[in-house]
Write a structure and sequence with these properties.
Layout: E1 18-20, H1 22-28, E2 32-36, H2 49-62, E3 67-73, H3 77-89, E4 92-99, H4 106-110, H5 113-119, E5 123-128, H6 133-146, E6 151-154, H7 161-181, E7 187-192, H8 196-207, E8 213-218, H9 223-241, E9 254-255, H10 268-281, H11 290-302, E10 311-315, H12 327-330
Parallel strand pairs: 2-10, 3-4, 3-6, 4-5, 7-8, 7-10, 8-9
Antiparallel strand pairs: 1-2
The structure holds pyridoxal-5'-phosphate.
Amino acid sequence: MHLARFPRLRFAHLPTPLEPMENLSRLLDGPNIWVKRDDCTGLAGGGNKTRKLEFLMADAEQQGADTIITQGAVQSNHARQTAAIAAKLGYECYLLLENRTGSDDPDFLANGNVLLDDIYNARLSDFPAGTDMNQEMLSLAEELRVAGKKPYIIPGGGSNRIGALGYVNAAYELVGQCNDQGLKVDHIVHATGSTGTQAGLVTGLTAIHSGIDLMGISVRALKEAQEENVYRLACETAELIGSSAALNRSDVVANSDYVGEGYGMPTDGMIEAVEMTARHESILLDPVYSGKAMAGLIDLVRQGFYRREENIVFIHTGGAQALSGYRSLFGQRVV
Ligand SMILES: *Cc1c(COP(=O)(O)O)cnc(C)c1O
């Protein structure tokens, strides 16, 4: 599969490292856990959206855009990474932020990713939970067009078939690293939300017949809905890259057992996972995505879901820049 056929800008730090989590593996007394450090993609602290943005920003450039519009939750990592690259490439950037949890915690509303969005000079607007954010983006784009601008809309999470190319590439990169290191991987686990990451991965892994199981731990939708949404985008992505490999619905596996009360709502397992991974591996996860995904992985290991001799790769999709927005969950010190 020849990804160089697609326009792409190069600003991610790639390949990201693939490292063993020896302490965590020992502590859990289960399979060997490895971590693919997509929290180290380099842009604005890194994270999975950077890979997607390499393809999306190239498309924006080709279309002659001068303004970027995107949307996400208040503490969106996608919004932060988009604001960062838009600033560098000279685009105006509008971020439409939805307060999905209805929180009024000042840290949540202004710290973490929001602080960084401000530093990158993005134009932020706030919306209550349940707003039709896609419609809001369309209305804003129309307004800007009338004002003579050339807006380019990036969907939430950068999740369309262009963005998903970033994770087709990540699948190739990861399998290449494993081949170089002689590491036989049995399972890949990661957080799944707006679906572009998992759709790109499943497309890439299937296109090269990797034979590696992939599981997305859902941070929002129920299993059936998440799998359907991932599958739909994966089919579009496979068509875009011209993959002839059969993509089966059964290749798309989501696990929604670790969402808790909802998107962005803390769980005990998430807090344990964030603290454990920090204290034993020095690695910072986040409360909304990678923390819940790791909580799922830890629980599955404890349940004996994996065999001891198996190798699991956890894709760390980033998000630690949100931590200070959730100070009340972790901070013990009263000031
Ligand atoms: C957006 C995000 C995800 C989920 O990726 P999708 O492509 O939206 O499914 C996972 N982890 C972090 C830290 C994210 O910001």
